Amino acid sequence: MKEKKLIFQGIYDILRGRINKREFIPGTMLPSESQLCKTYSVSRASIRKALELLEKENLIYRQAGVGSFINEQNKSKNKPEQRLSIGITHGRNNIYTTSIYEGAREFCDSFNAQLVLISTEEFFKDRWKTLDGFIVLVGDNPFPYEKAGEIAAQGVPIALINRFSSIPEISYFTVDYENDSARAIKLLYQMGCQNIAMIGCASRHHYANDLRAAGYRVAVEQAGKKTKELDTSSDFSAVEAIRKFLRQEKPDSLFITLECMFEYTMMACLAENINPETDIKIFCFGEVDALFTTSGNIIYADMQTRHMSMEAAKHIIKRRLTPHLEPVAKKLYYSKFVINSKLI
Q1: Burial (0-12, 13-18, 19+ Cβ within 10 Å), 71
Q2: Cα torsion for 12, 14, 15, 16, to the nearest 10°?
Q3: Domain assignment of residue 76, yes or no
Q4: Rg of the chain in Å (alpha carbons)
Q5: Are 182 and 274 in a shared domain?
Q6: Are 218 and 297 contained in the same domain?
Q7: Residue 337 backbone dihedrals phi, psi, to 5 degrees
Q8: b vs e for 60-70, b when ≥16 Cβ sit within 10 Å of the residue's Cβ?
Q9: Contact 253, 195 (CB under 8 A)
């Protein structure tokens, strides 16, 4: 025990000396615990005890899930002096966007940062000058990637949710729609399905619909099967179109590219005396009400959007406070599939 105490006290003395010499700039973040472990060749427990001593002296303050920050000398400080403001695009109020907003807001609240709902147009016009970062939900309209890269290069971090970007300055947190869709089709084959048909929506969310349709085609063709597709509108006229499609193709399973088409599909099945609980398997790329998922015949993709947006908010705050320590993020996630309310 005595040796351990000497180790963490030694680390404390080193870090305290570096802080007093202002080798670490007030307001910036210390290296992570794992980085400090490597630098000083000590255990994480020793690093944490050293940080606790520094915090007791008000030399640092710690933010859960983010890191440790340098306080102004001789000044008690529990939170950053300036409240950060993070912008996030507003869109349709649905399960997808609500999950993203909740995740970003939860992390911002934990850091005492403000989450500001604004339009993409408003941000690029002039609001970016008043914000500390921007979380983007790209819609079907063209997105100004080059302009976003220029703004990010000026120190306003920009993070995309569920979009890729080849521009070096732009971060992204995304799933691969095409790959995840192919995985979903392979899962249906593993469950014994042989005649998988796709129901898409040509009038909504072109990016998501098109990539998921591409993933469907790849997986079906790799299995040596024939693709069967219906692209219809996202209104009640879809019910009749789906009914006709079901009579013609007689699928044993359905792959739905967008959550907005799920209820229309359920209505069409019931109108055709097809019981989704027993007669046909349905995979929906989007969250489905738990009431429909008790039989195991209805499966959906959980894209972990809440977690992604929390990570995006955390990344923007770190980029703003310690740009020299936090690199641009390019993070790819895999959707989790839910059967019987259980993730697989």
Answers
A1: buried
A2: 80
A3: no
A4: 25
A5: yes
A6: yes
A7: -95, 140
A8: bbbbeebbbbb
A9: yes
Number of domains in the chain: 3
Do 157 and 62 lie in one domain? The reply is no
Copy the structure tokens of residue 301.
Answer: 């993709």
**Residue the block writes with tokens 């359920």:** 266
CA 254, 255, 257, 258 dihedral sign is positive
Which CATH number covers residue 142? 3.40.50.2300
Supply the range of the domain harboring residue 201: 177-302
Say yes or no: 294 and 315 in one domain: no
The whole model's pTM is what?
0.77
Query: Is residue 112 a contact partner of residue 82, using CB atoms and an 8 Å limit?
Result: no
Nearest-CA neighbor of 211 among 170, 251, 257?
257
Q: Which of 70, 94, 112 is the last residue of a domain?
A: 70
Is there a single domain that holds both residue 133 and residue 89? yes
User: Can you spell out the DSSP letters for 14-54?
Assistant: HHHHHHHTTSS-TTSBPPPHHHHHHHHT--HHHHHHHHHHH
CA 104 to mean position of chain CA atoms? 9
Name the token pair of 28: 């910036």
Do 219 and 260 lie in one domain? The reply is yes
Q: Helices in 57-176 by DSSP H: which ranges? A: 95-110, 120-125, 145-153
Cβ neighbours around 291 below 10 Å, total: 7
Return the half-sphere exposure (C-beta side, CA atoms, 13 A cut-off) of residue 260: 20
Residue 111: name the closest of 89, 132, 133, 84 by CA: 84
- pLDDT in single tens digits along all 344 residues of the chain: 344 457 888 888 889 888 887 777 677 778 888 889 988 888 888 899 889 888 888 888 887 777 888 886 544 444 445 689 999 998 776 788 889 999 999 999 888 899 999 999 999 998 999 999 999 999 878 899 999 999 999 999 999 999 999 999 999 999 999 999 999 999 999 999 999 999 999 777 889 999 999 999 999 999 999 999 999 998 999 999 999 999 999 999 999 999 999 999 999 999 999 998 889 999 999 888 765 666 778 999 999 999 999 999 999 999 998 888 889 999 999 999 999 877 77
